[in-house]
Specification:
About 35% of the residues lie in helices and about 15% in strands. By secondary structure, it is α+β, with helices and mostly antiparallel strands. α1 crosses α8, α3 packs across α8 and α6 crosses α7.
Amino acid sequence: MRISRRCPSCGHPHSWVVRRDHRKCRKCRKEWPPKTRYPVPGFRSDIRQWSRIISAFLSERSVEAVTKECSLAKDTAWRHVRVIRRVVTEDVPVSFSGTCEADATFVGGAFSNKHIHIRKRGSKKGRGTRKQAIFGVLCREMNMVRVLLDSKEERKVVIPIIKDLVTKGSTVFTDGLVGYRILPRYGYRHEWVDRMAGEYVRGEVHTQGLVGFWGQLKNRLAMRGGVRKKYLPYFIGEQVWRYNFRNRSREKQIERILEILKQFGGKSKEIPLK
């Protein structure tokens, strides 16, 4: 993307920089403020620099690599990457309809790799583990997914999430957890597979699409060598965004992130842990 040097008053293509990054038109001699040049509120980076940073982010470069590629200070690169990760976390569909898959899993890495003070507390597999529980819904028609963090994999937690994310009258496929079986009371068509009995697919009834996303998500988190719990929603949100917009070209992905940044900038809301 090229930076526009045209005068907003007369449209003349030539100008020069004056005090405090204002620009002055060579033809009409009028000045305009840097906000015309810096599209994202709270950042003194132009469109070209933002495009390079977003491209490096989408290529999953480290902050050190972004620092070198974009000629930024490390703290500046961190600030840019953090706000990109925050805004893509909020760029999710409001609701799903049609055929959906719902499932929960746990993230947190191998127990043997954790710090010794954590290992001393003890843990176990499945329900009762000290790992973070996450719950997701995948819509087959939209080919998109939503993921939320929750404290427990219980009926009182997952059923309200499904009611918020999936419109009534939709079909929801789950595993054999008993808590899901009250979904028909709320106007959903519900089918499940009994994984405990070795049943993973029965015709169109399965949650393999979401299970595949879980595997991808855990691999990406493992590649980072661990993520602090308070930052986990943003890293999960990043992978959700990558999955939802994976079929778009790199140029379209950059344009979408830029449009969101122009609206919110560094003032994007914090993502609460649920």
